[in-house]
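hey m, so remember when u said the tokens were messed up on ur end? i reran from scratch. heres the input so u can diff it against urs
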Amino acid sequence: MSIQYLTGFGNEFESEAINGALPKNQNAPQKVPFGLYAEQLSGTSFTTPRKKNLRTWFYRIMPCVNHKHFKPCTQPFFLSYPLKKHPPTPPHRFRWNPLPKPVSKLNFLESLTTVAGNGGVSSQTGVAIHIYSCNQSMKKQAFYNADGAFLIVPQSGALSIQTEFGFLEMEPGEVCVLQRGMKFSVSPLENYARGYVCENYGAHFELPELGTIGANGLAYPRHFQIPTTHYEASASSFKLFCKFQGHLWKAEQNHSPFDVVAWHGNYVPYKYDLRKFQTVNTVSFDHCDPSIFTVLTSPSDTPGVANLDFVIFPERWSLAENTFRPPYYHRNMMSEFMGLIYGQYDAKQKGFVPGGFSIHNCMSAHGPDSETHNKASSQKLKPQYLGNTLAFMFETRFVFQLTPWALSTKLLQKDYEQCWSKLPALFHK
């Protein structure tokens, strides 16, 4: 796999698999080198201001228009928001066990199971949260999402993702963003792969502002990676899947969707190694708000209130005096979906396991379990390294509406509330 570094969001990139395939003077010359077709993929409107305008020019063997009529197809657990019918979501705290390994052959697309979401695909607001558990490649199949971007978070098993731009390979500890409209195919590199997907209906992901942190910290642009061109000149039959306005569609075509020989632009897929995140932490007292761990944000029309924040809790030093170090008890106007990639999350001692996930909706009280509170309140405050741990959070301004599957699956931990039941009454005069 060949990659290049994304040195800054909004920069222009280019790649060619054959020398001279990339036109040098104009985007769509009268005759493109090597008999290729010129085609533009726009990630924003044509008149979006220049500094936020996203588009890429492809030079490919066959243009994307060459496919048959789309027909509806079904994938019963892969849903979009708003749901047509769903039971009311109660204000409980929810936690689930991990998806098991599939008992039959399932590829990435077939295994997608929607847990929760909000907003709507037509209004281009909100998100949907999916999980996957697959053991097969998407052979001779490709998928593109006209409703939103995919942020994929592997938890177990490495993935190879073929895109129109080239290949991205990723393992647990890395994440990737596949932008709206980009065609891709997923192959597990091991016998089995499991993880999480955030489908973002809203504004494009970007790096959060650093504010008073200054010039350095959090995720560095130079650590983001994008693919280089790898074309597939195949005339065999392919199945093209599309999610459009909340429905899944399928069409046949007689050529590979991955036949791009050269490209240039700034609308690209990318991946990021979460282990390169530069944490910022306290060295005096109190526990900083989780916003200091934001990797990517999808802003809303209200400054400071995100459509979605992608936040991580990585390996780091915990340094503070005379304070309660784990996350504090709180209620929040934002709604939180949490997942655990590996290790143990510092606010939960039991029940929250790798591959599992939880939801704490708007104003639902949550925080450390009884065992964590009792331990953290009495332990000696010396520098502590939180190692072998990587958790994450999808945080959104909109309340998560749970799917019927999420409310009824046997993976739901019906005793989750018990983790706070042994908190002692310590008040005294």
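this time it looks ok to me. Residues 370-378 form the longest helix (9 residues). if urs says something different then somethings off w ur setup not the seq
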